[in-house]
Amino acid sequence: MTQTTLSRKDRRARAAKASKYYGIADGAAALTMHEAYEALAAADGPKAARLAHDVSQTHPANRHPWLVLGTVALDRREAEAAAQFFDRALLIAPTDAMGLAGLGKARVLKADIFAAIDLFAQAIERGSEDVPMARLYADLMGRLDRSTTAGRNLRKMAQRMKTAEMWLITADAFASGESNAEAAPAYEEAARLAPQPLSNRIGLLKAKLFRQDYQGLIAGADALLSELEERNAHRDEIVTLRMAALRALGDIPRALETLSHRFQDPDQFQRALGFSANCHLDREAFHEAHIAFREALHLVDGGGLWVKRAYGTFLMGQGDFAGGAPYYAGRQPEANRRRIPYENSEPDRLTARERLFLVDEQGIGDQLALLPIIDRAPLPPGAKVTFVGEARMKPLIERCGLGVDFAETTEVDKMNVAPEEMIFVGDLVRYLSVEALAEQPLGGYLRADAARVEAIRARYREMAQGGPVVGIAWHSNDPITGAHRSLALETLLAALPEGALVVNLQYGDREAELAQAARTRPDLTLFDDPEIDQLADLDGFAAQIMALDRVVSIDNTTAHVCGALGHPDSHVLIPKGAACMWYWGRHGSPDRWYGNLQLHRQTQLGDWSGPLSEIAAL
């Protein structure tokens, strides 16, 4: 029934309802406003604009006509007009989700990306259910290498809306940011709400990869491939995921057989070539790995961020810092490079810089590894250096021996920082060489809180009753390299000295795992310290590590904290092949990076017996 065929009574009832909903006392104007929204939903822009314009003249203090006029202007790609209409709406209702989202879209049309993403984040916080805005927000944040932040904001929308579509957008954002532990449940929720769509079934395969359920992934991929026609474009992604699982399981021959698949999508073929390069690295076939990386690099225009980073770290792992640094520079998205160009880190620019802001990137371990390179940069005497990062890094940076100040990321906008005064901390690798590292490693620059160290040490020694105090970390959640870098807790415990107090340094809830493992070594006391939250309290974590007699860890944040602190008895289990991080090089027991760690390397892929026998003999 249309408005024109309603009875007088029904029309009065609808007018009263519209008046209440739109906040317009005039029933006729309220119904006109409702018709404007209906026209907008029917993609009839001219009618929506005409009706909204009429209401704007009689009720200029109501936000709704301005919201409709702004939306119509957006559809016409009239950025300035849209911005003016949405600004008018937000003057009336500053927290209106539709107004914030609309103004954000207008800012995108005006190429004001940073203002746009801030507005989108506010719209999400205020209850927006605008799915196209969510997709745009995820895309823009991905281009800025801020996908994890996007995922955490989008998850709020998904929890409100409870739709598979929003959970999939959220999951993809987390996956883009390599926040795999957060991506997996989001993919699973999308598949639970809508099990049949192919995108959700592929998402479920990604969740299996992120949860390191490689056998489950292969079985699911095989089942899905058997259902799809040979020319289905999604087969490429499924095949590539299957290849990643085979490689993680150490089945190198079957993983390399994947390259016989006839790829239609060059991006997926590029990823498969990257996995093949890792397979060659696992076999220490360095020449073949080099060829695969080069082929992947030139397959797609621009190379792709991940392959530039992978090839750069491959070269630096081989000791070629000069060759690898320019490729490693390509790890940052174009939008970030427009804001902070790689050229900012060139020697002739740094020699003239009176102040410099080092912008954080990647994980905490990488930041700790890269930060001390600043001492090698050609800055003039007296130059003021500020590290820009997360608040949890502040006490460590302010107490470190590098003479570096600290500022939170949110504070930089208030500090009148010129674009040329900023560099990404990873761009400092251009000032490294194997010879320079051998002459002067980078470790020992952090300083733990001495009072906290002594307090923790006293507690542990009382608990140990004369036995050694050993900290351990044994598991990595990385979906690709995690299986190669991790080992079973029981296996690690077998290499520890009798009567030791074993302190858990592994993040996450490990209570059940520790209880089960303790049965294999009843002579050990396994302790999960409730006073230390290593994820939230990095300063406390540093003090905890310095309170330990010895640390035995896989290659994760724990290892980097030990190196940065200069802990004198730290031992790191290093996997063979592609899972060996570039910091450690390919050979050698003393680490080339920090100088104080002892590296215990696998000689056979997946076999920890050699490294653990070295630990047991200490």
Automatic annotation (TrEMBL):
InterPro entries named among the record's database cross-references: TPR-like_helical_dom_sf (IPR011990), TPR_rpt (IPR019734)
TPR repeat ranges per the UniProt record: 63-96
Coiled coil: none
Keyword list, A-Z: TPR repeat
First and last residue of the signal peptide: none
Designated name of the protein: Flagellar protein FlbA
Organism: Thioclava electrotropha
